[in-house]
Structures are given as structure tokens and as C-alpha cells.
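task queued by scheduler; priority normal; single chain, no ligands, no partner chains; default sampling; output format set to C-alpha cells
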Amino acid sequence: MQYVLRLFVAGPSEHSTAAIRNLWAMSRGPLKSNAKFDIVDVRLNPETAEAHNVFITPTLLNLAPGSVRRVVGDLSDHDHVLAALGITQRSGKSDAEEKIL
């Protein structure tokens, strides 16, 4: 299954840079060979952000397959990002249990 991801950032801010770095890490791991992504700087392309109802950055959208899903933040918790985007299943453990392991 091919996932289509779009990351919206606002220039070279600390959070935007972290989100790009984390998306890159996921693309070399769990998303390897089954996702394509692009990065949109909302300062340069505000119309694209508005068309996708993105008002906070960084925001990652899973545009396909299925309905659009979004995650806001620096994407540092890869497991939660992938689950929120519908790419993987969460383990079923509570957040507290996951942090203990």
C-alpha cells in the first residue's frame, strides 16, 4: 500500500526542523518503500496550507489511501504518529504502560 504524506512547516523553526528530521527517520524505517512525501513551507505556499485547512505547524497529513488523517507536532513519537495516521496499529497498551517498557 502506498501512503501519500504531506508535511507542512513554517520555515526553519526548531519544531519544523525536528518534524522534518523525524519524518526522514520514519521514511528510512517503518515507511521505507511504501510512502512518498513532500514538504510544504506555509510561508512560501500559504494557499496550499489553506486548501488543506492547516493552521498550525508542523502538521503531517496522510492524504492517501483513505480519508485524510493529520498529526500536529514534531513527530518525535514515531509509533504514535504512525498509529494516528492509520499506518500501523497501536499495541493496545495504555500510554503509561508503553512508557514503562
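post-processing summary
- Strands lie at 3-9, 35-41, 59-64, 69-72.
- The CA atoms of residues 15 and 74 lie 5 Å apart.
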